[in-house]
């Protein structure tokens, strides 16, 4: 494992030698500081700037309160985490941002553990310091969704598989099976990493020899036991997530250029390449290179680059969401240090650390400035610009003024209805797209017994809602949301309990939204 000689530290300046000596001798201190700054900046800035959570977060909160295993889109581990954060704090304002940054910080730590085992302590620290320069670990993270919930699971699987394949005992295989199974509850695309891991396990001679022991099979049994409820639930909803995936794929193919996905990924890595250059790791070094063992290099490239490269190739032939690759760049820094680590010295490490903290502070600051400007100066109605709390308060007031009992169901324009129900004290359920396939927690009997509050944008009733609100009074309210743009009009209609003649509550179409 790489270690620096403390005597070399004074060369970089006496004013910082003691600090850097301590940090380099105790990398966990620097790693902890990195995680702390990441958590503070990316929790505080969105909390202070965004009046509403991002769209996927609102959806996660609304679905999380139903405590279902999966919806027509994805498994629901992110929703469970969001609902748990609300139950613990009572807030919809900031806990989701904290949860998101805890997953990012957990990813930093797990990547460090893998890199420490494969490259050594110092290169491992350098690899993690490169991660904040990657777009996917900064700007998109306030939108905590399935793509970001699976990040620590991808990192953990890579580390546990390496330990288990290198001769680890029963504990490593059991942990691998457990984490792999739970990872599928974050998103089904975890299967892609498991497929790459399985192929490596079969091809690497040392790892393959472990198959002659009972431990891998015990880990497999744990994995199957964990995913069995998910498989049963998937069958019971007629594999709707696969239908959603196909529809989402078709939407991307129709609305995005063929090279769009690859362009987004390259742009997301541009900061990483810039920091590599600024750190000096791209410069030639007279220091002799101690080559990384071939089997280690193969593993890091296969698990760290393989899924990302495959999805880029696939995107040339089919639609791929721009954020789907987010967890696939966990090990990019580790791979870079595997090839460039012989150039790493005290000066390079210091530059990497400075760049890492600048990236976190600058990117979070830019996020806050741009989001505030979009809402209040440009008048651009992004998802985070909606006045979430006033909409919920007004929705609840309208309901209780017109109907007895609690507000139990919200529907209509699904995105607005979710905002109306988010902060409501009654914690209503969302009737997604007024389709019971997408909201199985809604039944016709529940609709008759409890009624529903319909919500939509604008003064006129959309044609698809006419059957629901025909002859029902409509109240339109203007909400201020921007310093420059005019107020937005939102309409509400109370479908009272006891309504007998309800429209068909299941549509023949399948919605495939962008998010």
Task: Note down, in words, how this protein is organized.
With 515 residues, this protein is mostly helical. It folds into two domains: 15-130 and 148-372, no CATH class; 386-495, no CATH class. It contains 22 helices and five strands. Helix 8 (151-165) packs parallel to helix 10 (190-203). It starts with 13 loop residues before the first helix and ends in a 20-residue tail after the last strand.
Indicate the topology:
Elements: H1 14-25, H2 27-49, H3 55-64, H4 77-89, H5 95-119, H6 121-130, H7 146-149, H8 151-165, H9 170-186, H10 190-203, H11 205-209, H12 215-236, H13 240-255, H14 260-268, H15 270-279, H16 294-315, H17 332-340, H18 346-376, H19 388-402, E1 409-412, H20 414-422, E2 429-430, H21 444-450, E3 452-457, H22 466-469, E4 474-479, E5 488-495
Parallel strand pairs: 1-2, 1-3
Antiparallel strand pairs: 3-5, 4-5
Helix pairs in contact: 1-2, 2-5, 2-6, 2-18, 3-4, 3-20, 5-6, 5-8, 6-17, 8-9, 8-10, 9-12, 10-16, 15-18, 16-17, 19-20
Order of helical and strand elements: HHHHHHHHHHHHHHHHHHHEHEHEHEE
β-strand amount: 5-15%
Tally of strands: 5
Helix content: 55-70%
Number of DSSP helical runs? 22
Shape: globular
Cα distance spanning the termini: 44 Å
Number of domains as seen in the coordinates: 2
Content-based structural category: mainly alpha
- Major β-sheet strand ordering: 2-1-3-5-4
Give the uncertain stretches in residue-range form: 1-14, 507-515
| Largest beta-sheet characterization | 5 strands, mixed
């Amino acid at each position: 494992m790489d270690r620096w000689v403390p005597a070399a530290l004074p060369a970089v300046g006496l004013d910082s030698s003691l600090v850097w000596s301590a940090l380099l001798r105790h990398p966990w201190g620097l790693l902890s500081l990195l995680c702390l700054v990441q958590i503070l900046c990316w929790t505080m800035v969105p909390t202070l700037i965004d009046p509403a959570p991002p769209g996927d977060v609102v959806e996660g909160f609304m679905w999380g309160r139903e405590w279902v295993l999966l919806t027509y889109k994805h498994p629901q581990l992110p929703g469970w985490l969001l609902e748990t954060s609300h139950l613990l704090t009572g807030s919809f304002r900031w806990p989701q941002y904290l949860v998101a940054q805890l997953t990012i910080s957990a990813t930093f730590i797990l990547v460090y553990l893998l890199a420490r085992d494969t490259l050594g302590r110092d290169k491992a620290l350098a690899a993690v310091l490169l991660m904040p320069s990657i777009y996917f670990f900064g700007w998109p993270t306030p939108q905590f969704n399935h793509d970001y919930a699976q990040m620590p699971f991808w990192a953990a699987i890579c580390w546990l598989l390496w330990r288990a394949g290198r001769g680890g005992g029963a504990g490593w295989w059991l942990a691998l099976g457990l984490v792999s199974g739970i990872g599928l509850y974050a998103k089904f695309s975890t299967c892609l990493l498991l497929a790459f891991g399985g192929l490596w396990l079969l091809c690497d001679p040392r790892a393959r020899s472990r198959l002659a022991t009972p431990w891998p099979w015990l880990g497999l049994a744990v994995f199957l036991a964990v995913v069995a409820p998910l498989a049963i639930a998937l069958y019971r909803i007629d594999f709707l997530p696969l239908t959603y995936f196909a529809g989402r794929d078709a939407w991307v193919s129709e609305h995005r250029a063929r090279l769009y996905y690859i362009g987004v990924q390259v742009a997301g890595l541009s900061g990483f390449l810039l920091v590599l250059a600024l750190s000096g790791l791209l410069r030639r070094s007279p220091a002799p290179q101690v080559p990384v063992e071939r089997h280690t290099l193969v593993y890091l490239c296969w698990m760290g680059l393989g899924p990302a490269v495959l999805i880029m190739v696939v995107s040339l032939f089919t639609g791929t969401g721009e954020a789907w690759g987010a967890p696939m760049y966990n090990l990019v820094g580790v791979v870079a240090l595997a090839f460039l680590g012989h150039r790493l010295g005290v000066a390079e490490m210091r530059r990497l650390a400075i760049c890492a903290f600048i990236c976190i502070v600058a990117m979070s600051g830019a996020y806050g400035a741009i989001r505030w400007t979009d809402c209040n100066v440009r008048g651009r109605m992004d998802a985070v610009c909606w006045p979430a709390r006033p909409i919920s308060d007004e929705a609840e007031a309208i309901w209780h003024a017109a109907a007895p009992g609690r507000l139990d169901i919200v529907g209509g324009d699904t995105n607005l209805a979710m905002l109306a129900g988010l902060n409501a004290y009654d914690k209503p359920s969302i009737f997604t797209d007024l389709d019971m396939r997408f909201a199985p927690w809604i039944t016709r009997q529940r609709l008759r017994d409890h009624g529903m509050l319909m919500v939509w944008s604008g003064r006129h009733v959309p044609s698809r809602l006419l059957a629901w609100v025909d002859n029902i009074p409509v109240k339109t309210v203007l909400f201020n949301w921007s310093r420059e743009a005019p107020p937005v009009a939102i309409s509400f209609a109370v479908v009272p309990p006891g309504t007998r003649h309800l429209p068909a509550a299941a549509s023949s179409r399948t919605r495939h939204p962008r998010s």
